[in-house]
Amino acid sequence: MIEAILEYYIYNRELYSTKEIGYFDKISNPMIYEVIRVIEGQPLFLEEHLERMEKSAKLIDFNLNKSKEEISNEVYKLIDKNNCNNMNIKFLCSNLDKDNQDFFLYFIKSYYPEEHLYKKGIHTISYYSERKNPNAKVVNIKLREKISQKLKEENAFEALLVNNEGLITEGSRSNMFFVKDNKLYTAPAKDVLLGVTRNKIMDICKKLNIEVIEESIKKSDIYNLEGAFMTSTSVNVIPIKSIDDILINSLENPIIKKIGKAYEEEMKNYINARKEFKIK
After folding, report:
1. Residue 35 sits in the same domain as residue 166
2. Which of 13, 22, 159, 234 has the most neighbouring CB atoms within 10 Å?
3. In a domain, 223, yes or no
4. What is the pLDDT of residues 104-135, one digit of tens each?
5. What is the dihedral of CA 256, 138, 172, 166, to 10 degrees?
6. 82 belongs to a structural domain
7. Distance, CA of 185 to CA of 8 (rounded, Å)
C-alpha cells in the first residue's frame, strides 16, 4: 500500500506526482524512517528529527548518503509544492546497504487527537513485546499490524510495551512517562526509541526543576501511579486516564499540567522563530 498522499512527493531529489507510484516499488530493506509534524508551514523540531535519522542508520551500521541541509531544503520544497501547512511528512531511506540509496519524502495521512482526549485522557493497554534494537527507528510491519488489531479490539489509544522482566519500556509508537511519589519516571535511554518529543520533555523538566528518574516502571506498580502521559510527534503530551482496567488520575496531576503547558510554549516559540526560513 502506497502511503504518499496529496499531489507530489520527492524521490531522490526529484519531484513526482503521487499518480506516478512506480518508484515506491524500489523500497526494500534495510530501511529507516522518520515522521515529522508540519505546523503553520514549519517542520517541527526539524534538526532533531534529522539527527535521529542519522543515528538510526548508524545503529544498524550504515550511513546516510544525504546531507541534513539537502533534506531540509527538500522538506520545505515539498510543503510549498503541495501548499500544505499542517500535516505529517515521512522521510524514508531505503536500500541503506547500497551506494545509491533511495530517499523518499512524502505527506502521509495524519491523525491528531481531538481536543476532548486531552481533557478526558486516553485509554491504554499493556502488550508484551520489546524491540530488538530500540534506539533505531526501523520498520516492523508485522508487529505494527498485531498491535493495531489489539488496539481496535480493546478500543484503546495506545499499547504500553512490557518486556520479559515485566517492565514497561515504551509505547508502540510513543514514549511513556509516569508520576510516582511526585517524581517523573521514564525508561532508560538504552531501552527505548529516543523520541524527539521525549528529549524536549527531558529538557523542559530540567528547566522546571522536575526530577526525572530514568528507570522502568513495573507493570505490577501501575496501581501506585499518581499520573501518566504519552508523548510523540503527533500527540505532543497527552494524559493517560487508564492502563488496562486500572484508572489513573493524570488529568489533575500538577506535574503533568506544568509539562504539557511548557511543551506547548516550546512548540510555539520554535515555529515563530522558523517562519523566516527561505527555500534555497
Report:
1. no
2. 159
3. yes
4. 999 999 999 999 999 999 999 999 987 776 66
5. -100
6. yes
7. 42
